[in-house]
Design goal:
This protein is an alpha/beta fold. The chain has eleven helices and ten strands.
Length: 315
C-alpha cells in the first residue's frame, strides 16, 4: 500500500481484477486483454490476450520468480487466442508457455512511412546538429539494462576519432555528459523524424525486442540501421540493417564477458563507419529498409486482427 493508503503499481493488477471481472462478465462475448496482467481467470476460454514479449521469463536479469509472474503468464495457455508482434515471440510463446501454434497470430504494429518534410521550427531548442552524425533513441530514465546504454557510450568513444558524434534522443539523454555524445532529451515527433532522416545511420544495441519500433521508424525515414542480431530484430528490419552477432551468452551484465563485449562494440563501430563512408551503400540499404517497413501498414494490421477475431469467434 502507498503512504496515503493507495495500492502501489506492483499490486495494481490484483486490485483491478474484481472490477475487471465484473465488467467482462457483464459485457459477454469475446474479451481482448491488452496483456497477461489484464486477464480475468474466470473468462480465459473467451479471451484473446496480447503478449508483446516474454522478457520476464527469458532474460535472467528480468526473470521474475514471484507469485505474480507465475500466476499471470501461464494463463495465456488457456486463452482462446494470443496476439504477438513477431514470429520470434510466437515461437517463444509456443515453446515456453505451451500455447498451440494454431491459436497464435503474428500482428506487428503498423509503421507510418512519412513523406519528406521541411525542417520544423526549433520549438524543442535542440540547436544545430553536425552534418555527419549517428543517432539512437533510448529512455535512460527507465534504467533498462536490456538497452545496453554502456555499449552505446563505448561506441561513441570509438566514433570520436573519425569525427562521427552520437546523437541520443529520449528521456534523460540530455543529462548524459559523455565523450562524443550529444544528448537531446525528449523531442517532438516532427523533430524526431527530422533527426532520424538526417542521421547517417541508426545504432541500436538492444538485447531483446518484441518488435523494435525505434529502428523501424528510422528505416521509415530511409536511414539504415546497425544492430545486434537477436530476438525479433532480423525479421523486423529485414534488408535495412547491417548486423553484428549477439554475444554467445547474451549477457546484460556489464561486468561479465568484457572482452567479448568490447569486440562487439568494435564491430558495431566498424559497421557504422561503413555506412558513413559509403553513401551509395547507405542509400541502398536505407531505401531497401524503407520499402520493407512500408509493408507494415495499418490495413495489414486491421485485416490480420479482423481475420483472427473472426476465426476465434468461430472456434
Amino acid at each position: 500500500m502507498g503512504r496515503n493508503g493507495s495500492v502501489g503499481p506492483r499490486w495494481a493488477e490484483w486490485a483491478e481484477l474484481p472490477h475487471r471481472a465484473i465488467t467482462v462478465h457483464r459485457h459477454g462475448g469475446l474479451y481482448h486483454a491488452a496483456s497477461v496482467y489484464h486477464l480475468v481467470p474466470s473468462a480465459l476460454q473467451r479471451s484473446i490476450v496480447s503478449v508483446l514479449d516474454i522478457i520476464p521469463l527469458e532474460l535472467p536479469q528480468y526473470r521474475q520468480t514471484g507469485f505474480k509472474a507465475r500466476t499471470f503468464f501461464p494463463q495465456a495457455r488457456w486463452c482462446r487466442g494470443v496476439v504477438v508482434l513477431s514470429q520470434h515471440t510466437a515461437q517463444r510463446v509456443h515453446s515456453v508457455l505451451g500455447v498451440p501454434e494454431e491459436r497464435i497470430v503474428v500482428c506487428p504494429l503498423p509503421i507510418i512511412v512519412p513523406e519528406k518534410q521541411p525542417y520544423p521550427v526549433d520549438c524543442c531548442r535542440i540547436g544545430d546538429l553536425p552534418d555527419v552524425f549517428v543517432s539512437s533513441v533510448i529512455d535512460v530514465v527507465a534504467d533498462d539494462p536490456r538497452k545496453r546504454v554502456p555499449w552505446l557510450l563505448s561506441a561513441a568513444i570509438g566514433l570520436q576519432e573519425p569525427g562521427v558524434p552520437l546523437v541520443l534522443i529520449g528521456s534523460g539523454t540530455n543529462s548524459i555528459h559523455a565523450e562524443n555524445v550529444i544528448g537531446l532529451g525528449r523531442v517532438c515527433d516532427a523533430h524526431l523524424l527530422d533527426i532520424l532522416g538526417r542521421s547517417n545511420c541508426f545504432l541500436y544495441t538492444s538485447a531483446y525486442e518484441g518488435q523494435g519500433l525505434p529502428p523501424q521508424e528510422s528505416l521509415a525515414m530511409g536511414t539504415p540501421v546497425v544492430a545486434l542480431r537477436n530476438s525479433s530484430l532480423p525479421e523486423m528490419l529485414g534488408p535495412g540493417a547491417l548486423w553484428v552477432e549477439e554475444p554467445v551468452d547474451g549477457s546484460l551484465d556489464q561486468s561479465t564477458v568484457v572482452e567479448d563485449r568490447e569486440h562487439r562494440v568494435e564491430q558495431l563501430v566498424a559497421e557504422v563507419l561503413r555506412l558513413v563512408c559509403d553513401p551509395i551503400l547507405r542509400d541502398a540499404i536505407g531505401q531497401a529498409g524503407r520499402d520493407f517497413v512500408g509493408s507494415f501498414t495499418a490495413k495489414r494490421f486491421q485485416d490480420t486482427m479482423s481475420g483472427f477475431y473472426d476465426r476465434m469467434f468461430d472456434a
